[in-house]
UniProtKB/TrEMBL annotation:
<feature type="transmembrane region" description="Helical">
    <location>
        <begin position="56"/>
        <end position="76"/>
    </location>
</feature>
<protein>
    <recommendedName>
        <fullName>Integral membrane protein</fullName>
    </recommendedName>
</protein>
<keyword id="KW-0812">Transmembrane</keyword>
<feature type="transmembrane region" description="Helical">
    <location>
        <begin position="155"/>
        <end position="173"/>
    </location>
</feature>
<keyword id="KW-1133">Transmembrane helix</keyword>
<feature type="transmembrane region" description="Helical">
    <location>
        <begin position="119"/>
        <end position="143"/>
    </location>
</feature>
<feature type="transmembrane region" description="Helical">
    <location>
        <begin position="180"/>
        <end position="198"/>
    </location>
</feature>
<feature type="transmembrane region" description="Helical">
    <location>
        <begin position="82"/>
        <end position="107"/>
    </location>
</feature>
<keyword id="KW-0472">Membrane</keyword>
<feature type="transmembrane region" description="Helical">
    <location>
        <begin position="15"/>
        <end position="35"/>
    </location>
</feature>
Amino acid sequence: MIDWFQQTIVDTNRLRLFCFFVFFILAFLFIRFSVRMIRRQVKWWPGNITPGGTHIHHVVFGLVFMCVGGIAGLAVEDINDGWAALTAAVFGVGAALVLDEFALVLRLEDVYWSEQGRISVDAVFIAVALTGLALLGLSPLGLNDPSSSGEDTPLGLAIYLVISLALSIICLLKGKMWAGIFGLYVGIFAIVGAMRLARPESPWARKRYPAESKKMRKAVRRESRMRRPMNHAKRRFQDLIAGRPDQG
């Protein structure tokens, strides 16, 4: 295990990324456990921090952690040094606290336990997925792939980047968030997502599929048959990890 860690993480200069990844997940799980205990009004768990009657949300502490970890990390020269790992871990904790209240920052109101608050959990899942892909050595659009950097001409590389970005953007416009994100790393996801029908509530469908058109009817049927069970499973998983939003 030690040899694997040395060869896969340290020797590939991913120690900081590994520490960020681990502490990001741990901080998210801890803060979700904490807020669920507070929500249940468990007596043995500390409550909200409210000096002078002002509720200080944990996004504030997250910003402080991100500033400390980010600035300190810039001052560390050796990226495999223990201090570099520590600053990355601190930054990961801060990022988790901030993204856990992403919906609050986006809407400028406390929607943490509302249905709109699910976007915070989505943001955390996306961050975990992207960091995990980077930890595996994948880079968006293959920009850091040494096997192709010396073979492509500037024009060929530019065309490749434009097409890849365009396909991923089409996926996002069609409401296929994960296809658009993973398509930046593995092109086949973007190609398939861009070719398939858009989700009926997506900007692409609203703009290009008339209400009674064949494509819109097919998209609605597909949403009902495939997407809704998947979304239901995703919501149940989110509720298990992060807690169920208030009903009403």
